[in-house]
Amino acid sequence: MTRQGNLQAGEPVLLIDRKKRRYLIDLKAGGEFHSHSGVLAHDEMIGQPEGVTHRSTRGMVFIVVRPTITDYILKMPRGAQVVYPKDLGAILIQADIFPGAKVFESGLGSGALSTAMLRAGANITGYEIRDDFLEIARQTVRRFLGEPALDSYQTSLRDAYQGIEGEDFDRVVLDLPEPWQVVPHAEKALRRGGIFLAYTPSIIQVSQLHEAFEDSCFGMAETVEVLHRGWYVNGTAVRPDHRMVAHTGFLTHARLLAE
Ligand code: SAH
What is the distance in A from the centroid of ligand 1 to the CA of 102? Predict the structure, then answer.
C-alpha cells in the first residue's frame, strides 16, 4: 500500500520531539497520544500533511511524519531479533528480489525481512516454527503494508528443516540457525538459476553452509557483511559517529546450477 497525501486514521505515524525521541503510534479518530509532556490529540494530526509540527497540552512540540521502513522496524514491537535495515537493503539486492518473485522464506521471526521483501513485490511462502512469532510477523506486515499485503504472504507453522512444499521458487531466503539443513530442500524447490540466501550471525555457520554447497548443485557462493558507519556533521565538526552497529550477521548467497 502506498500511503500518500494527508495523514489518515488507521495508519502508523512517527512523532519526533525536540530531543529527537521517536514514538510510533497508529492514528485513530478521537485517539490521544500521552507522554510525560502532555497529551496530543490524534484528530489534530489526521487530515494534515506530513512534516507538520504539533504542540501537546504541555507545550512540547512534535514533528509528525510517516515512518519509513527503517523507522518502523526499529520501533515496532519485536519478538525475535529482526534483520537490521542496513542488511535488509543488501538482502533485497543480493537475493535480487523483484516484483512477482516467488520467494520461500524461513523463519519469519518479527516479520521485518518479510515486510521488506513484500514491499519490493515478492510473493512469499513462509515457514515459522513458533506460533507466537508467526502471529507477530503477520501483524508487522499488516500494520505497515496494510491488509491486502497478506494476499502475497502465505505463512505456515512448519519446520523448514523437514522440507519445502512446492517448486519453481525463484528465491530461498533464510534467517534460521542451521541453514545448511535447508540446502537439500532448496535444491528441489528452487528453479535452475534461482538464488539461495542465508543470514547468519556467526562465521562458523558460514563455513558450515559453504561445506553444504560443496555437496550440492549450488555454485557461485559468496559471503559478505555490511558495515554502515554514520557521520556527525555539524559546522566544522565533521567526523564519524562515535558509535555504530558493528556486527549483525553475514549474508551468504549462492545460485542453483544445472547438475
Ligand atoms: N528475519 C526475521 C527474524 C527471524 S529470527 C525478521 O527480520 O524479523 C529466526 C526465526 O526462525 C525465529 O522466529 C525462529 O522461531 C525461526 N526458526 C528457527 N528454526 C526454524 C525452523 N527449523 N523452521 C522454521 N522456522 C525456524
Answer: 19
Does residue 79 contact residue 110 with C-beta atoms inside 8 Å? Answer: yes
Angle at 131 between CA 209 and CA 70, to 5 degrees: 65
Give the mean model confidence (pLDDT) for residues 207-223.
Answer: 98
Nearest CA to ligand 1 atom 2: 109
Calculate what percentage of the chain has a pLDDT beyond 90. Answer: 92
Taking the C-alpha atoms of residue 116 and residue 257, their distance in angstroms, rounded to an integer, is 27
Domains of the chain: 12-67 (3.10.330.20), 71-256 (3.40.50.150)
Q: Is 160 in the pocket of ligand 1 (CB under 6 A)?
A: yes
Q: How far is the CA of 187 from the centre of ligand 1 (A)?
A: 20
Per-residue pLDDT of 113-128, as tens digits, reads 999 999 999 999 999 9
pLDDT(1) > 70: no
SS3 string, 45-109, reads HCCCCCCEEEECCCCCEEEEECCCHHHHHHHCCCCCCCCCHHHHHHHHHHCCCCCCCEEEEECCC
Torsion of CA 192, 194, 199, 202, to 10 degrees: 30
pLDDT of residue 36: 85
Q: Is 84 in the pocket of ligand 1 (CB under 6 A)?
A: no
